[in-house]
Amino acid sequence: MKRAVMFISFLVLLFLFPMVSPAFSSPTVIVDGRALSFDVSPVIENSRTLVPIRAIFEALGADVSWDDITQSITVTKGTTKIKLTIDQVTAYKNDLPVILDVPVRIINNRTFVPLRFVSEALESKVNWDVASQTITIISMANPSEGKQQKGCIGAIDYSNPNKYTVNGKQS
Questions:
Q1: What is the CATH architecture assignment of 2-139?
Q2: How would DSSP label each residue in 93-114?
């Protein structure tokens, strides 16, 4: 009887293992229809995806500077300025504090940032598909500038989030 229970438990674990393993794989990140490649894979910490800073900010068209003394990163794009500090949960967007769910980290000698925060702080839309472990980002122009960024498939009317344009046609 004891052997039968152990054998059935083993079979249950064997069949569950393939269903659990994709959750531990690195997510795919797509920005404006292009899959990003990273020299160090993205990681998930406390249900938040962290990605190497260089790849995400280059894809979103932002400028990045590093302050070695304060261990901080300053990101600028248009009129938006983001300041992040290693191992801190407080970031600043246009000098206003924002509490992050996870801090900026250094992993394998690379600086990792919370993907959703930095993307949305730069006026991008972020979608997560749990089944395919894919994060899709659509970059947007700064609404105050009234321009559509190159590579963007549409624009959102921020006074009415249900109204947007795709290829020049309102929806």
A1: 2-Layer Sandwich (3.30)
A2: ETTEEEE-SS-BEEETTEEEEE
pLDDT at 87: 96
pTM comes to 0.66
- Reported as type and span, the H/E element at residue 84 is strand 80-85
Residue 54 phi/psi, 5-degree rounding, is: -60, -50
pLDDT, residue 26, reads 82
Cα–Cα distance measured from residue 6 to residue 166, given in angstroms and rounded to the nearest whole number = 57
Residue with tokens 């690195």: 26
Question: Which stretches within 21-167 are classed as H helix?
Answer: 53-59, 115-121
Cα(60)–Cα(77) distance, rounded to whole angstroms?
9
> CA 75, 38, 78 angle in degrees (round to 5)?
20
